[in-house]
Amino acid sequence: HDELLSKLNSSWHDVKQLPKNWETSPPAIEAEKKLTTELTKSFDWHYTCGLKDPRISILLPLWLAMLKRLNIEPHFAHICRIPNESAQSLHKRDKLSIEYALALWASYNLEAINSIIQAKLPYQILTYNEVLGHSEKTLQRLLKEFGEPDLAANINQNTLESFCDRTLKHNSSQ
Questions:
Q1: CA-wise closest residue to 60 among 121, 105, 124
Q2: How far apart (Å, rounded) are the C-alpha atoms in residues 1 and 70?
Q3: pTM exceeds 0.85
Q4: What are phi and psi of 127, to 5 degrees?
Q5: Contact 66/41 with Cβ under 8 angstroms?
Q6: What integer best gives the mean pLDDT of the chain?
Q7: How far apart, in Å, are the Cα atoms of 6 and each of 1, 3, 16, 28?
Q8: For residues 69 and 126, what is the distance between their CA atoms, to the nearest angstrom?
Q9: What is the number of other CB atoms lying within 10 angstroms of the CB of residue 50?
Q10: pLDDT, position 170
């Protein structure tokens, strides 16, 4: 993701929109080939898989095209953090101003939600606090809504706890 964003004269912390038709540019085509290789090597797509990377929010058109070519029908769980918490976290970790971090939060969330809605694919929007505070219950509900009741009934608690690490949340508006 970082390599693609760099080749598009952008970065994960850039609030500018990506260039028009970026997803069909040579850097995007190259990135898709690399992602396809990595994903087919690392995941068994006959089973439900989950990916978590905030940069997917701004690169979703590339991902949608790639998943379609791989004959994978995605379901989206967009996890939305309270804007001030996100901004505080980015300010502390990356020394971004609060105002800029809020603009970045807005950019990522608007891009993701717009792409998901345009794709007309199943999605759920969850809060960060919901995921961290009630991980098992939230994942069970999500899996049931996405047509995976067997998985919902057999969640591996250790895997879930490593994915939803509450110690990573250092900023809270509560």
A1: 121
A2: 19
A3: no
A4: -90, 150
A5: no
A6: 88
A7: 9, 5, 13, 11
A8: 28
A9: 10
A10: 47
The two tokens of residue 36 are: 């396809």
Distance CA 124, CA 169 (A): 22
39: phi then psi, degrees, rounded to nearest 5: -70, -40
Question: CA–CA distance from 142 to each of 44, 50, 113, 134, 165 (Å)?
Answer: 20, 12, 17, 12, 18
Task: Tell me if 122 sits within 8 A of 75, measured CB to CB.
Answer: yes
For the chain, the first-to-last Cα distance in angstroms comes to: 33
pLDDT in tens, 87-125: 999 999 999 999 999 999 999 999 999 999 999 989 999
Q: How many CA atoms lie within 13 A of 138 on its CB side?
A: 18
One digit per residue, the tens of pLDDT, for the chain of length 174 reads 999 999 999 999 999 999 999 999 999 999 999 999 998 888 877 777 777 888 999 999 999 999 999 988 899 999 999 999 999 999 999 999 999 999 999 999 999 999 999 999 899 999 988 888 888 888 889 889 988 888 888 887 777 776 675 555 545 555
Q: How far apart are CA 71 and CA 65, in angstroms?
A: 10
Give the integer Cα–Cα distance in Å for 73 and 144: 16
Alpha carbon distance 136, 134 (integer Å) = 6
